[in-house]
Amino acid sequence: MKIIHEDIKKNFIKLKAESIDDLWHLKHIIRKGDLLEGKTFRREEQKTDKIRTERSEKKPVYLKIRAEKIEFHKDANRLRITGVIEEGEDTGSYHTFNIEEGSVIGVTKKWKTYDLERIEEAVKNTNAPKILILTMDMGESVFGLVRGYGIDFLASLNENIPGKYYSVKRKKERETFFKNTAEKIIEVFDRYSIEKVIIAGPGFVKEEFAKYLKEKYPILNGKYVLKRASSVGRSGIYEVIKKGDLEDVYKESRISREIGLVEKICQKILKDEAVYGIKDVEKALSYGAIDTLLIVDELLRDEKYEKILERSRNKNCKVYVVSSEHEGGEKLKSLGGIGGILRFKIN
């Protein structure tokens, strides 16, 4: 993300979204009631009876709208924000801003500390390396792109490879499987500007595949690392993250940090060294017992959770807003969406 202009005294920041991760950040920064402004496209109403007999062409206009509905469409790489026009043509009518990679949007709102921290993080991560995690076993490979908000599961390949008694056919099908997997890696590398791929899985298939890549696809040499995972697919990809293998490649990975913290809080709950759920968290906060607070991003649209977050900061707690889009966020949601690691045990 890029800050184009900032005037905190007027509660105004103009931002440029430079990636799909930035759209996700904006989804959680912009809330109902915020004032948005920017260049957009709008169909021109017929001046007579406002009835369009034919679909008129869209023309560029500059509008300000009061946000009412915020929708993140990650499959379409788009953030849609709908609201009433407060300044510009057709004041009082509804309009939708379609924010995509490259879009510039001005936001006027009462800025919270965590909103500004989120912008700071997005700016810092503009040039973060893009990592692909590939889990594979013989005949199956699954591709997961590491995003700031979670894992984007891009594709899976399956090949029916016969047993060892059919050695000639097995060798041919194995070659086809390796070739298709390698071609998919190159396709993903080119499309998403990937810098490194983690290849993981059970057994020795990954080593055989690495040998194949070295011989047949030297263009990928130095761009992959091998790690062990006990399974293929979503579970294997999240296993790679939980073990810290992602941090070996990118030490400042947000998803790796968040999943690790959720795992830690689950372990400490078993020892009565952590609390979860709004009631117990508020009780622990009143005692000054919380050292680290975790909260799912979705809850920050609720004022009571915003107040808990601010109270935590005032008590010098470490605060982490966890994405609801990955396994760690889902697990935290099952605990009520909020939890705290304790400085000391409480009754």
What this model shows, in words?
By secondary structure, this protein is of the alpha+beta class. It has three domains: 2-127, Pelota, domain A (SH3 type barrels, Roll), CATH 2.30.30; 131-252, 2-Layer Sandwich (Nucleotidyltransferase, domain 5); 265-342, 60s Ribosomal Protein L30, Chain: A, CATH 3.30.1330.30. The protein has helices at 20-29, 113-124, 167-192, 205-216, 234-242, 245-249, 254-269, 278-286, 303-314, 327-334; strands spanning 2-7, 12-16, 35-43, 58-73, 78-87, 94-99, 104-108, 131-137, 140-146, 151-158, 196-201, 224-228, 274-276, 290-296, 318-322, 338-342. It has a seven-stranded antiparallel β-sheet with strand order 1-2-7-3-4-5-6. Strands 10-9-8-11-12 form a five-stranded mixed β-sheet, sandwiched between helices. β8 (131-137) and β9 form a beta hairpin. It is flat, with a radius of gyration of 24 Å.
Which key phrases capture this entry?
347 residues; 3 domains; 60s Ribosomal Protein L30, Chain: A; flat; seven-stranded antiparallel β-sheet; SH3 type barrels; alpha+beta; Nucleotidyltransferase, domain 5; five-stranded mixed β-sheet
Rg, nearest Å: 24 Å
Lateral strand order in the biggest sheet? 1-2-7-3-4-5-6
Task: Give the overall silhouette.
Answer: flat
Which bin fits the share of residues in helices?
25-40%
Order of helices and strands: EEHEEEEEHEEEHEHEHHHEHEHEHE
Please give the alpha-carbon distance between the first and last residues: 45 Å
Q: Count the beta strands.
A: 16
Number of helices: 10
Structural class: alpha+beta
Summarize the main sheet. Answer: 7 strands, antiparallel
Number of structurally distinct domains: 3
Q: What is the average per-residue confidence, as pLDDT, rounded to a whole number?
A: 92
Poorly predicted regions = none
Q: Going by CATH, what is the homologous superfamily of the largest domain?
A: Pelota, domain A
CATH class of the largest domain, anyone? Mainly Beta
Percentage of residues in strands: 25-35%
CATH architecture of the largest domain: Roll
Reported by name, the CATH topology of the largest domain is SH3 type barrels
